[in-house]
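Residues determine shape. We examine one folded chain.
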Amino acid sequence: MFTNTAFGLILVYTYRALWDEKPHLGGYDQAQMLTYVWLGQALLSTLAIGGGGVEDELMERIRTGDVAIDLYRPADLQLWWLAADLGRAFFQLLGRGVIPFAFGALCFPVYLPRDAGTWAAFFIAVLLAMVVGFGIRFLVVLSTFWLLDGTGVSQMVWLLGFFCSGMLLPLNVFPGALGEIVRVLPWSSLLQAPADILLGHADPLGTYLFQAAWAAALLGVGRLVQSAATRRVVVQGG
């Protein structure tokens, strides 16, 4: 919580300098920009944008061959780890998300919707973002079946996720074709999509369809890759 709050303060004053030079950058005013910063800090660990999800444990089980035990259990491997990751995400939202966001709301003139409907729509978008985030990271994990160590792939995807999710800057700020490309990638479902709903910059239904489409596509591809990967399970040393 302390780290997220400290980085939130750094970003607030960095963004303030940028917005002072270019007011309403990306369609956000100063208050909306401040909300975006603290929302990013609240969702960073929740959505495991920079790592910290269940992927580390699952990659280790694949590396050691312990995943063979998981495959014998009367539970689907993908759904088992999706449930575990959702539990982790909700815990992080409450444990590391609420306090930094509340600090930002109390100490800075942020924009907060007053109607419950907007907050409800926002939380639905966050739930869909959790599923999309798991779908991306599950595909990264499955690379371990071939590479035996998915650390390098994970780090590359984390860097890409920071850039394409809006953690560094809102995707609305990205110019021209670059902005159009990053907004159709799955990472835009993580931070940018819920933020736009909370800030009144997006239609909830259209956002849900976009997120749900990516969730279904990622989970579907993950299912196919899992099916191929589990045919080559190797227990190290035996």
